[in-house]
Amino acid sequence: MVLLDLAAEIEPVWRRTNAFYGKPWVWNMLNNFGGNTNLFGRMDGVASGPALALHDSTSGKMEGIGLTMEGIATNPVIYELAMQHTWRSDPIDIRQWLMSYMRNRYGYNSPGLEKPGTSSETRPTTGA
Fold first, then answer.
1. DSSP state of 84
2. Section 82-108 average pLDDT
3. Rounded to two decimals, what is the model's pTM?
4. Terminal-to-terminal C-alpha distance of the chain
5. Angle at CA 80, nearest 5°, toward 37 and 92?
6. 115 vs 124: which has the higher pLDDT
7. How many angstroms separate the CA atoms of 3 and 1, rounded?
8. What are the C-alpha distances in Å from 47 to residues 20, 25, 29, 66?
9. CB 18 within 8 A of CB 66
10. How far apart are CA 36 and CA 43, in angstroms?
11. Which residue has the higher pLDDT, 36 or 28?
């Protein structure tokens, strides 16, 4: 039996269950509910969560990372970010990673996107 920490980027259950009481588990991201098209995600949790859990002495038997999407092709940047952890063991610098992602995906850098406040620091707001 392997347990999924189903939405670890939002609320890591392993922290409050003594790493699932010694059972093997997977740090997992559930970003998409119901196949809805969205442009949001907990980039800070995704960029740091897997690496921090890997190096935490209380994380127990963490066996890997996973994704459980209820829809695909809805937000490629958040899934690409999550899968970067298959190749590294350190937290990801979001600003640097986003610049590289945009350059690789679109073939060039846009000077306007490199200004402070244009990455995960800028959060959409809702108004009445």
1. G
2. 89
3. 0.74
4. 47
5. 125
6. 115
7. 7
8. 22, 19, 11, 14
9. no
10. 18
11. 28
Task: Answer yes or no: are the C-beta atoms of 81 and 51 closer than 8 Å.
Answer: no
Contact between 12 and 5 (Cβ < 8 Å):
yes
- Pair type for strands 25-29 and 62-67: parallel
120: how many CB neighbours lie within 10 A of its CB?
17
Rounded distance between C-alpha atoms, residue 7 and residue 2, angstroms: 15
Written as six digits, the tokens of 53 are 């859990």
Tokens, residue 60: 């127990």
Which candidate, 72, 80, 81, 2, places its Cα nearest to that of 47?
A: 81
pLDDT in tens, 13-29: 999 999 999 999 999 99
What six digits make up the tokens of 73?
């092709």
Residue 108 structure tokens = 């060039």
Separation of alpha carbons 95 and 38, rounded Å: 20
